Amino acid sequence: MRRFVIVLGVVALAGCNDIEGMDPADPARGPGQLVGNGAPITDGNFRGGADEMPEPRDVEPPEEGVIVDCGTGCASYCDSLPLDNPVNVGMCPVTWGVGLATRPVDRNEACRRLYADLLGRFPSADELGTVCQAPTWGETVSTLLATEEFVRVQQRRWADELLYNNRAVNFERAYDMDELVGKTFEGRVAYDGFAAVTSAHPVIMRRLDTPGDRAEFMFELFLGRPPYEGERSDIARLYQLWSNGYFDHPHVGRLPDSYIQFSCVDEDGNADPATIGECTSVLWGHHELTLRPDVKRLTKDGEQEGQLWSGKLLPSEWETLQLPGRLIASEPAFWEHVVEQTLTRYLGYDLAIDAPAVRHELVRYLLEYQGDIRALHYAIATSFAYLQSSKGGDESARRWTYGPYKQIEVEGWIDSIKATTGADLARCDHRLPHPEDYLEPGEEDDGYGQGLSGWALALIRNSRWVVDGDLEVEDDYRNLARTLGGCPSNEVGGRFTTISVLNTAVQESFVAEVCGIGDTDGVSLDRLLPGGMNGDTVLDDATADSILAHQQALFLGRSPDEEELEEARAAASQCNPAPCTARSFARPVCFALLSSSEMLFY
To answer: Taken in order 56, 57, 58, 62, is the CA torsion positive or negative?
Structure first.
C-alpha cells in the first residue's frame, strides 16, 4: 500500500513541476519547432500513379552482359508511350524500348511490399481487400503516404541515421529532430529546408567533436560521399561556433547539449579582421558566419561560462547557423543523392546506375513538386520497377526486369505478428533508447520512490515506452528486437540486419511462445481457428483445410494453393495420438506460418 500511495504522489507531481517550455508530454525543444508550422507545400496529388505496363518493342533483346544501347527506334518507341511516372519514363530506354519485358504486377505481392516499405508492417486481410483494390496504384500509395504510420517509419529510419541516444544528446533535441522529420514527410518542410535545419541541429552537433567531423558528417549524410580535403576544411570554418557541454535540466538533472562560443568577433561583437577568416567559407562564394554575443543570455557560471546555451538561440540566430546546409543543398549532387538513396531503399539496388535517365527524371520530378519528399516516394512506389512481381522468369535477367525481394525490418516482423495474433508485447521508442535513466531514484530516495522526479515519470509515461506498476520499463519488445538488430540503443553503431543460427533460434522461440507450442499458453485459440469452429472439433481434411485457409488469410493475406492444402492434409493424417482435434492442429500451423520465409521476406 505504501508503494502505491507514493507512486500516485509522484504522478501528481508531474502537473506541479511544469515550467514554460518544459512539457513532459511534448518535450521537444530546438530549431525544428521554427519551421513547417503551416500547410503542406503541395496538395499531395502527384502525377504518374496510373501508368499501364508497356509491352516490349518487337526487337531481339540485348544478350546478358551486353551494355544496353537505346538507338533511334528505341527512343521513338519510348517517346510514343503514354508514360507519366518518371521512373517508368527513365527505365524505358533500357527495358521496353530495347525489347526487354518486365514481370506482371501481382496485386497481393505488391500490396504486401507497399505496406512493408511504407508502413513498416504487412497488411491485414481487410487492407488487402480494400486499400489495395483501389482503381489505380496511385490511389493506394496516396492513402498510405497520408498515414501516421508512414511518417513513423521515416522517423525511425532517420533516428537510425542520426543515432539518437539520450546519454549522448539532450533528449529534448531528439524529440525536436523527430518532429522535424515528421513535418518533412508530412510535406510541410521541403527537403532542402530540412537539410538546412539538420545541418545545425544540436542532436548532431553534440555527437560530433570537431568542426571537421561535423562537415564530414553532413557531406556523407546529404551528398553520399566524404568531402575532399578542401571542402572539409572550408565547411568546417562554418562550424567554429559550436561546442559541447552540459545543460542542467530542472527536472531530470544534467543533460549533454550544445553551446555556442563566439569565435571570430571582437569585444563589440563585430567581425574581427584578425580571425574572421577562421569563420569564412569561400568555395561557394564568400560567406562569413558569426553571432553577436548577448551578455544577458550567456552562461554566467559552470563549465560553459561565457558561452550561449543553444536552448537560448533566437530564430534569426538559428537561421544564420544553418548556412552549411544551405550551401550543401545548392550542390546538384544533393538532389541526386536522395534520389539514389530512396531508389535503393525501395528496390534493394540503385536503378540509376543502369538507367541514368531515372535519376534525371526523378530529380526533375522532385523539384517540380518544390522538394516535397513525398513525391519521390510516390513516384518510386507506383513505378513498374517496384510493383512488378519478383516471382517467375529467369533470375539471371537484368535486375530491373523483376521486382524487389527483401528482408523485412525487425520491428515490422514483430509488429505484424502483434497485430495478427494479439500477442501482448510492449513497444519501443526510438527517441529515448534508455528510458530507465529517468526512472532511477534520486539521492534522497528511501527505496519507495520519494526521490523520483514526477516530471521524469510523466515524460516516460507520455512516450511510447510502457511502465509497469513497479515503475520499471517493460522491455520484452526491446529485448527481442535488439537481439535481432532492431530498436537500437545507438551507443556507437545502430541497427543491423543478419540471418544466422542465433537469429533463427530467437525468432523460432518467440513464435513458439506466441503460438503456444510446448509449455506456453500462447495467444487465444479463437484467433487461430475459423469463426464458429470449436477447439475440440475432430481433425479431418476439411478441418485442416479450413484452419490453414483461415491462418494464411490472417498472417499472409492470401489463400493456400493446392500444394499447401495437400501438405496440411498429410500433416493432419499423421497427427498422433489420434483422433486429433482442431486445437492440436491450429497451434503447429501457426508456428509453421509465422516462422516461414514469407513472414521474413517480401
So the answer is: negative
